[in-house]
Amino acid sequence: MDSMDTDAPTGALALQPGELYLNVLALTNEARNMHGLRHQDYQRYRQFCANKVQRLRTGCNLVQSGAKRRFEKKPVTAEVVMGEKHLQLLLFEAERGWAYAMELKAEVRDEPRKRFHQVKRLKKAVEAAKRLHDICQTCQAGNRTLLDVQAYATTMAGFLFFEQQRWEEAFDKFATARVIYQRLAKAGTAQQEALCQSAIDSIDPSIRFCAYNLKIKGAQNLEISSLLEQRDESAQSELRILEARVGSMLSDISTEQNDGTLKIRWRGKIIPTRNEKLVEAIFETVKTFEGLKGSTPLPMLLDGTSDTAVTDAHLERFEKALASAAIAIHLAKEDVKNDELATAKVKSSKSDQNSANLQLALAYVTFLRLSISIDRNLELIEIAKSKRNGQGRFKGTKKGAKPEDIVRFYDAIIQGLDDMKKFSVVDSDLAFHSFLSAKSHMYKAQRAAFIAQTYSSLDKHGEALALYERANEHVVHAKAQAEGAARHDTGAGEDMRQLRDKILRTEADIRGGKIKEQGKWYLEQHQGGVSVDGISKGIQNIELNDGSSKSQSPVTSRLNTFILDFDCGNPNLIVLPPVFQPAPCKPLFFDIAYNGIDFPVSNIERRSTGSERRRRGESEEEEKAKGIMGVLSGLWGRK
């Protein structure tokens, strides 16, 4: 009686429907990558599966060795299943058979015995997978577990038919598994999607090879989905029925909506996403932001004062939009992080595209937050300028805005525009990039003009004029960038027209401020008295006359003098003929060293006749005398 209690667990009767859960793809993918299949070592993986099965049997009290080490078969049935470990036992038995078959496949070549052994092992793997599927159905496991196990068992059956060269049955099994994995990929997390897509990538070559052997047209070039559509009507109807059943089983999963994909459009690009919370946050942000664009930025009362309560409510709506954008950014970052973790574990053919879509969604919500922040800073600038200028004092407020606060708002706007230009989708769009650059230069010009006004209020007119010149340079750059944006985007609409109007208004304000500042500077110089004398010294020779006394001297002789009576019709430029002027010539150099040099001309003549060379400075007579005296002196002993 005690042994019966030990062999038959009482907890099996308390099993509730839907309690069993088994993530087949995650378990098999992790085990294969960690135990040999990353390097195609099927023997090592088979040994791991054998040891894993033994450990699971020990943990489940299903060891198949009784008294005296005698073998006692203890199969895994629905009656003994208590949890996930029993399902893992059948799963790794199937994996062991499949790994053994793949190991033998590498050694088969033309040996029929090994090929028979390979097929036998695959049959054992298919049998274990089928028992796993039957137990999950009997124990009423979760819908996702049922579909995951069904796809695994169908794939194993497809491998068996593939090795037996039963191409039609193999094609149908692989097609069934592919349909299930496609639906599971749309109804799971980023990691589950990557695992399903990896499983699809592993069976797609087998489907294509089966289609080739079945003489299906376009087996080498068409997409797998097109190959599945070319099957006969009965096979297509079965796949449609299967897809509808899988969809109905996954209807309780919250992430599955319509086809599982929601789309976001931005700058001509479609961003697919299945995160419903992210889409809701984006929708809420865009809705609030669009409502802000149509509202009055500075609500004014009848007496010209600004209502603080109304303005605070207006700014509160900006804060609400920024909060929604922050939530969207958080959700998008979570999607990117989960995708990175999933890609690190398993990579499929669509991993790069999915990662790019998630990065694009993150860029979109970040761009949206920057846009809201820029508009909010513009509103704050207008409010601060209204406080500073004293136009419409805010009720209940006595504190005015500081100049550095307004400059800080401009800095935040410019930094936001620079951050926008760093996104890849913006950087690749020349028209939009030029549009943002034009806005950045325009706000730089407005910032420089405001600082110039601040210096002007402090009677620093020289610094103010320099800042107005810098602002004018930024306006020139803004107009050039706006023209470039219009040239690259022929369909530029309302936004471009508004930007041009703002640039023109900014240019007019800068021109007016510069003229006022120049007038203030001249008035200050006149009132100071010191600099006026210097100015009068420079203009005291200027005369206003009727032009009766015209200068007769040409322009070339009075380049440093300005004369008002210059006649453009008959200009006196130069004197013709020109007046001759003495020019200094080159100094003479008398070379008399030649006279002190004795050139050996005579020696050249003597050597040409074969005579002996004459010493320098010796005459012909001295030479003859030397010859006679030389003989005599030799005789007398004088040498």
Short description:
With about 650 residues, the chain is an all-alpha fold. The protein has helices at about 1-5, 25-35, 40-60, 85-110, 110-140, 145-165, 165-185, 190-215, 225-230, 235-250, 275-295, 310-345, 350-390, 405-420, 425, 430-455, 460-490, 495-530, 530-540, 600-610, 620-635, and strands at about 260-265, 270-275.
How do the strands and helices of this protein lay out in sequence?
Layout: H1 2-7, H2 24-34, H3 42-59, H4 84-108, H5 112-138, H6 143-163, H7 167-186, H8 190-213, H9 224-229, H10 233-249, E1 262-266, E2 269-273, H11 276-293, H12 308-345, H13 351-389, H14 403-421, H15 424-427, H16 430-457, H17 461-488, H18 494-528, H19 530-539, H20 601-609, H21 620-635
Antiparallel strand pairs: 1-2
Helix pairs in contact: 3-4, 4-5, 5-6, 6-7, 7-8, 7-10, 8-12, 11-12, 12-13, 13-14, 14-16, 16-17, 16-18, 17-18
